[in-house]
UniProtKB/TrEMBL annotation, chains A, B:
Residues 181-307 form the DHHA2 domain. Keywords: Hydrolase, Manganese, Metal-binding. NCBIfam families: PRK05427.1. Its EC number is 3.6.1.1. It catalyses: diphosphate + H2O = 2 phosphate + H(+). PANTHER family: BIFUNCTIONAL OLIGORIBONUCLEASE AND PAP PHOSPHATASE NRNA, CYCLIC-DI-AMP PHOSPHODIESTERASE GDPP. InterPro entries: DDH_dom, DHH_sf, DHHA2, DHHA2_dom_sf, Oligoribo/pAp-PDE_c-di-AMP_PDE. SMART domains: DHHA2. It is an enzyme of class 3 (hydrolase). GO terms for molecular function: inorganic diphosphate phosphatase activity; metal ion binding. Its cofactor is Mn(2+). This is inorganic diphosphatase.
Amino acid sequence: MSNKTLIFGHKNPDTDSIASSFVMENLEKNLGNDEAKAVALGNLNKETKYVFNYLGMEEPEIISDVENDQNVILVDHNEASQSVTNLEHSKILKVVDHHTMNFVAPYQLYYRTEPVGCTSTVLYKIYKEYGIKIDKKTALLMLSAIASDTLLFKSPTCTPDDIRVAEELMNISGVDIKSYGTDMLKAGTDLSDYTPEQVINIDCKLFEKGGKKFKIAQVNTADIDNVFKNQAYFEAAINQDIEKEKLDLYVFAATDIVNSNSKIITLGHDAPVVEKAFGVSVTNNTAMLENVVSRKKQILPNILNNLD
Amino acid sequence: MSNKTLIFGHKNPDTDSIASSFVMENLEKNLGNDEAKAVALGNLNKETKYVFNYLGMEEPEIISDVENDQNVILVDHNEASQSVTNLEHSKILKVVDHHTMNFVAPYQLYYRTEPVGCTSTVLYKIYKEYGIKIDKKTALLMLSAIASDTLLFKSPTCTPDDIRVAEELMNISGVDIKSYGTDMLKAGTDLSDYTPEQVINIDCKLFEKGGKKFKIAQVNTADIDNVFKNQAYFEAAINQDIEKEKLDLYVFAATDIVNSNSKIITLGHDAPVVEKAFGVSVTNNTAMLENVVSRKKQILPNILNNLD
């Protein structure tokens, strides 16, 4: 077992998971935990790479499992299915998150979650509570996470807290979220050198309800039609994953970050649930969901409410 | 469904559960939630009655279940088995706690727990974070909770945070925890007008592990021998509960708050687990556990580790 305290977000990490891991590492070091170390459960996506290039930061080490009794801190997730292998035998010191909860720990720990749009918004409050100074790099990491998770405040997941915190982070970092964030989000929409398997795994989460297993994958784009040129390839990759993982449903959403809607591919024997869930007709395994941009607040709850 | 936000601690409420409910009600009102209302899941024990008499406060309304979609806030617990009936259909807005976790919520919420000795220690930090002034009554409620949960700092559950917060609360309230807390704890040891059924239910918690159900009840005393004069009556009441609730084990601990040890009664077909768990011999269903005062840090983990 490593003496380190390993800090990580969820599998298929997005910008909030990666940025918040480094923000948490800095927080821990300020609190005297010199062994804190941010790692990742997967490769950085292009949006996050844009942030790291901008800041001249090195990418984190990637891990997939932990040894028994390893000290860990979870950010941006709490469910074992979205975390590292062997989490149940690790020692979870802290969790900082903003998601729904499904969590067991047979020991006391620090756990803080709030109903806000971004983990970094919660971390900002913790910095303030401890009176820890936020440097420019840390401020821009948090700002990037908020820009990503709230789609520049346009997602229904965005709360007044996220906006207020982002404004304070703009003051600290001297960076304007609109122009910087737009460049960052656009960098994330470049799918040109990904295989179809890679595209569906850029931001894919596994969920379970009453014995049913389903995945919802999401990519951001500024040109939905361009993404759907490769529909046949995505369907082949998705069907392969459905077979391998014994999934009941797979929803792949290409979310238009300019026009704020999503076109989906729905596959698996529960694929028709999408029609009831969103009041749409599925044609050729696809449907357009107007004004839908958030997996957490829109896609997931509608599916959960209609999946029997 | 009531428009109120009902705030409550665990069943068989102790001083932390009751005091923290009122401290949370005051916090919520300061944050603009005028509908916040502290209630209780059972009668106040004598220790808590001492606090309420001292402060001239009215006792809370007692509830046992909630309607669907009722807004609730949990303090000092998070597990459904220790909470109100129908919790799974309520809307949990917040949890503030300091226990192990076994919690599911299919929606975002505010959840804050820390590895400290008392819920009120966490609540004190939240007041500080929001910059909310702590009045003398609220300070004494928190101080009472800390004195109770840490047995005046003598329990192994007590942390430096609890001591630091208690010192600040003494400054605000103008009350010395040693003399006030000793009177409060002693008031809680008066079992003279309780029936045996009432004594075992003063502070009793239900636990589960791998399909096994067990209860650990605890009373504070300054005179263990006096408590055990009624051993036969307690055993009758315990055996009745074991049959009714289909329990595998029931441990009743009389904890000497002066000498910091506990004498237990162990019943149920898993009763012998106590011998392995604490390295003691059980005689006449009883054993003396030296230096054991904490259910959470000492009795529960040792039983969990040895219950197959």
